Amino acid sequence: MAQAALWGGVASLSLFLGALLGIYFKIPKKVTAFIMAFGTGLIIGSATFDLLSEAGGNADILHITIMFLAGAAVFTLFELWINKKGGSQRKRSQKNPHNHSGLAIYIGTLMDAIPESIIIGISFLGGQSVQWVFIIAIFISNFPEALSSSIGLKLDSYSTKKILVLWGSVVIVSSLSALLGYVFLADAPESTEYIIGAFGAGGLLAMVSSTMLPEAFEEGGPVVGFISALGIILSFIFTNIS
């Protein structure tokens, strides 16, 4: 139980670190793009080789398919809503002086972090070991969100202390979400765990496809395809040797 809470917080700790970088440093766009591409590859690999592969054979294929597509649909609807509220840049690291959407980005990131952390909590059910690939993937993917939001919040005259408190709150919520995911599903049938994992996989794949990968290519060029592929194959290797 304690492990679930710990690693849920660790996965989101990069939001706090990303905020510090956004406040005090200017990160080259290409560097951020390469990080995003690698994180995208890790998430795609983790969602496919871990969440979906484990579901196969442990739950009904129809239920897995429905939940996977439901996860993608829920994220897409959520994305449409957040875009209208000004948070369309939450996975991006670029400065947009014409649209101070820092708070909307923060809210969007908070809503992203909850299901991601619940999945981390579920991964510890049954005495399973730490899901390193998934946690690292979420850790890396969080950097551009905090970078982008911190820039927007500074433009909106938020103090450094207030910005760091906001991101610290996401780390705490993420830790609690992982803990709740573990506690409330501890007695659920094993097939339920895998079906929820399929739901999370659908949402994660929809997220990286519509937010992270487009900007990575826009800022980093064709080489991000290779970097993403590197992330995927490393995810495959780590999943099979763990």
From TrEMBL:
Keyword Transmembrane: yes
Domain of life: Bacteria
Main location: membrane
Alphabetically ordered keywords of this record: Cell membrane, Membrane, Transmembrane, Transmembrane helix, Zinc
GO cellular component, one term: plasma membrane
Membrane topology summary: Multi-pass membrane protein
Cellular compartments annotated: Cell membrane
Segments crossing the lipid bilayer: 6-24, 31-49, 61-82, 103-126, 132-151, 163-185, 191-208, 220-241
Record flagged with keyword Endoplasmic reticulum: no
Gene Ontology molecular functions: zinc ion transmembrane transporter activity
UniProt record similarity statement: Belongs to the ZIP transporter (TC 2.A.5) family.
PANTHER family documented for this protein: ZINC TRANSPORTER ZIP11, ZINC/IRON TRANSPORTER
Identification of the protein by name: ZIP family metal transporter
